[in-house]
Amino acid sequence: MTTNLQTFRQSVRQGEWTLHTSGVLPGHLQGNVVILPSDWAQDFYQFCLNNPKPCPIIGMSEVGDPRLPALGLDLDIRIDVPKYRIWQNGKLVSEVTDIKDYWNSNLVAFVLGCSFTFESALVRAGIPLRHLEHRKNVAMYNTTLALKPSARFWGNMVVSMRPLTVADTIRAIEISSRLPQAHGAPVHFGSPNDIGIADLQNPEYGESVEILSNELPVFWACGVTPQQVLTQVKPPFCITHAPGCMLLADVQENFDFLKSF
Amino acid sequence: MTTNLQTFRQSVRQGEWTLHTSGVLPGHLQGNVVILPSDWAQDFYQFCLNNPKPCPIIGMSEVGDPRLPALGLDLDIRIDVPKYRIWQNGKLVSEVTDIKDYWNSNLVAFVLGCSFTFESALVRAGIPLRHLEHRKNVAMYNTTLALKPSARFWGNMVVSMRPLTVADTIRAIEISSRLPQAHGAPVHFGSPNDIGIADLQNPEYGESVEILSNELPVFWACGVTPQQVLTQVKPPFCITHAPGCMLLADVQENFDFLKSF
To answer: Which of A4, A178, B7, B55 is the most exposed place for a label (fewest CB within 10 A)?
Structure first.
């Protein structure tokens, strides 16, 4: 585990850190990344505003500018994500550790809030999260929850799932509800079938975890949603982060509200 | 239904309004009432601070002073509750429509926040509440949820129950969590047995409602809790409101936070 932001940035920039960033540098805001040509970016922007739970925008670059000064003065979206995915016509064509060869003056980078933020808050409030305890990537599922379309963008929501007791579910809703920039409150709990999930032990992304008899599966809107959407919408070119391998911001999370809990 | 506060107050003061106050003058804060001799009031005050979910203090009189200026300049706790209960040694001895004959210079009046407040917020947010639709008093139950004792005060929590869909349960938790002065977020949902309720169709107070197959019972801490506690603690003398027949404050509820939902 890296000890500070500078060391972590160097490690990412040198292509050494290619793992998921769950639990890395707790307190720093992390984000999902979507990079699109400018003619697709406007539609995507509206799509995000239509669907703030899966797609909460926390940063956006100028056209062709790889910097994101609101999230970190030194940030460069071409080199600061541990692992990227390159998409052509909705197909994943490669995974790379920097996108210097792919960046051009017509691209716009979006950073969307991430569940790692509300997970930090939950852990700080004493709510145990099994996938973190077992050092797994969180389980994520495609659902039948329809998103609100915008122009060329449409699709269903991807959710992440964490098993919790009833008491912890209530507390988790209270806490994550206060973090709308990180997916907000859950979209569902209980029966997976209600949202089109056939088998909790077979997540489409991430790794499954055990659900104890006194626990419910609790489902949050997930930042992988845009990647599922991209496979259907098929823009000619797109870059995303690899699931779990987030952009780390200089900006710190603010959990002052937890003092009243 | 009365049309304004002044008409309602007159009707209560003349002993004409002796019904429950659910849905009366929406927007006005309502409160549960507990009146105790001063030597018991200090313990009760600490007990409320120990148990803010069932007993959120929103007003408290000076010793022997029947006024509650923070809740209404004209309020008089002796005449402004539609129906009172007189308790001696933990036993309900009578119900009356004013307490002028019982008030004395040694009494302290407490006003505790009330579920009617969060119910107004839920209804305003478009969440249907069956007992309101059926013009019933809400169903309330004794539980095995132990309260945090203070000196002579101890006992278990009384809860109110509302059946909600999963989606509405999540929204109801988000909303009521922002109203700590009105019992805050639920204490439980789902299996009634988990909190010692044997039969939802037989509430200890109020009236039962149907629970549809796509709904869960959702349980909130209830302002009737102190009355249940008083039957065990048995102070020599005490006055409460009759369940559902609340004190109406001049003060308005503030639901500005709903704009962000």
So the answer is: A4
- Report the residue of chain B nearest A177, measured CA to CA: B174
Q: How far is B191 from chain A (nearest CA, A)?
A: 10
How confident is the model at residue A258, as a pLDDT? 81
Residue B260 included in any domain:
no
Strand positions, DSSP E, B19-106: 28-37, 57-60, 84-88, 91-96
Q: How confident is the model at residue A23 (pLDDT cuts 50, 70, 90)?
A: confident
- Put simply, the answer to whether A173 touches B185 (Cβ < 8 Å) is yes
Q: How far is A188 from chain B (nearest CA, A)?
A: 6
What is the DSSP code (8-state) at residue B65? -
Out of B166, B173, B194, whose CB is closest to A188?
A: B166
Domains held by chain A: number: 1
Q: Which residue of A has its CA nearest to B260?
A: A180
pLDDT confidence of B59, banded at 50, 70, 90? very high
CA distance, residue A173 to nearest chain B CA (Å): 7
Q: Which chain A residue has its CA at the smallest distance from B215's CA?
A: A190
Instruction: Write the pLDDT tens digit of every residue in B157-192.
Output: 999 999 999 999 999 999 999 999 999 999 999 999
Asked if residue A261 belongs to a domain, the reply is no
Q: Which ipTM score applies to this complex?
A: 0.84
The domain containing residue B111 runs over which residues? Answer: 12-253
End-to-end CA distance of chain A: 30
B64 confidence band (pLDDT: 50, 70, 90): very high
Kindly state the percentage of chain A with pLDDT values over 70. 99
Q: Is A234 exposed, middle or buried (0-12, 13-18, 19+ CB in 10 A)?
A: middle
Which CATH number belongs to the domain containing residue B95 in this structure? Answer: 3.30.2040.10
A contacts of B166 (beta carbons < 8 Å): 188-191, 194
CB pairs under 8 A between A and B: 45
Full DSSP string of A33-81: EEEEEHHHHHHHHHHHHH-TTT--EEEEPPTT--B-TTT-TT-BTTTSS
Residue A170 lies in a domain: yes
CB A66 within 8 A of CB A24: no
Interface of B with A (CB under 8 A): 166-167, 169-171, 173-174, 177, 180, 185-191, 194, 216, 260
Helices and strands (H and E) in chain B: how many: 6, 11
What is the reported pLDDT for B54?
97
Query: Does a structural domain hold residue A259?
Result: no
